[in-house]
Amino acid sequence: MKIKLLFALIVAYSLPLQAEINISGFASVNGGKVLSGKGVFGNEATFLADYPIVSTYTEDFSMKPESLFGLQFTGDLTEGLTATAQVVARGANDYDAKFEWAYISYDLNENWTLQAGKKRLPLFYYSDFFDVGYAYVWMRAPADNYTWQIFNYNGINALYSGSIGDWSLSANLYGGREDDTHNKLLSDFFFKVPVREIWKDILGGVIQVNNDWLEIRATHMQYTNEREISGQPYDFGNGNMERDGKFYGLAVNADFGNLFILTELNKLDLGDDFDTYMVSVGYRFDNITPFISYADYEQDATDGENHNTTSFGIRWDFHSSAAFKIQYDDVEDDSVNLAVAGDSESITFGIDVVF
């Protein structure tokens, strides 16, 4: 953990407290390796388990790629005002702890809440709790479906919570920008040189409804993308130094008690279409939950990026706040001229906890 972070926490707790501070946490201790595979560009076989963080497994067993520890601090300032910060230390980043969330919330009334600061970009169904492995059945949210390089933003948003008949209704309207001076996915994995990734003029919305067994979530976002590679402006083609993007997403989940079905479909329009989807099915036998999942990424171009993953696994809830998981992943990389990590078969396992 960075000395600056420790110093900030010590100073915060040494000052007279004017609010009730609630602390919660989560952790994942995972390990795994590639069983077999074919690397790309002469490299060894690799399983890219988490795109934004570049969590990669090789044929050597490792517990660093997906292990993490997180703490969330929430200060209740009374009269509807709260402050929230989340610190995460990831094995993929040598456990260098960083503030990933830092925002203020104000409840206008029982239905509406305004927020401002740094938050997770709510593109996907699992975005808000992506790092909390205990919150979902798999080892990780399906990587082919969760591939984008930007996952936080700085801005403002308005949350709505209510109901219509037997349906619960929630919505989120947001706007802002993100300037990632050293984007990990683009810098460390794709371009292999320093890349600054900028998403500006972000404007999006999410609406979600659910009843006893069915949940539906729809989302849309638009933004403008700028990029610098090794300090130089990047040309997206034909002299265009920026490009506009539009994102669409739909998740439909059904829970029949023991049997559950999870689906998510996304599209990113950048001139070419980038389509992703995943389907998962699981069955609960008391505290044991086996599951199967399929995820697919397809770029609408003759030489584009195309890959898919078939996964099998088991979750064992051996404790009220902890779960053991083991998962087998079979990746097929069918990209023509833009191979990502190549074909691979891998095994991962670990324990997720919340506290």
Would you give an account of this structure?
By secondary structure, this protein is mostly beta strands. The chain has a single domain, classed as Porin. Helices cover 5% and strands 60% of the residues. It is built from two helices and 19 strands. The two termini are 20 Å apart. Residues 10-15 have low confidence and may be disordered. One of its GO terms (molecular function) is porin activity. One of its GO terms (cellular component) is membrane. Pfam families: Porin_4. Residues 1-19 form the signal peptide.
Number of domains: 1
Helix content: under 10%
Mean pLDDT: 93
User: What is the strand arrangement across the widest sheet?
Assistant: 1-4-5-6-7-8-9-10-11-13-14-15-16-17-18-19
Uncertain runs are 10-15
Largest sheet: 16 strands, antiparallel, barrel
CATH class: Mainly Beta
Number of E strands: 19
Please state the overall shape, judged from the principal axes of the Cα atoms.
globular
The radius of gyration computed from the alpha-carbon positions, rounded to a whole number of angstroms, is 21 Å
CATH architecture: Beta Barrel
Share of residues in strands: over 45%
- Give the SSE string: HEEEEEEEEEHEEEEEEEEEE
Structural class: mainly beta
Distance between the termini: 20 Å
CATH fold-type name: Porin
GO cellular component, one term: membrane
Pfam family, one: Porin_4
Domain Porin: 8-350
Protein name: Outer membrane insertion C-terminal signal
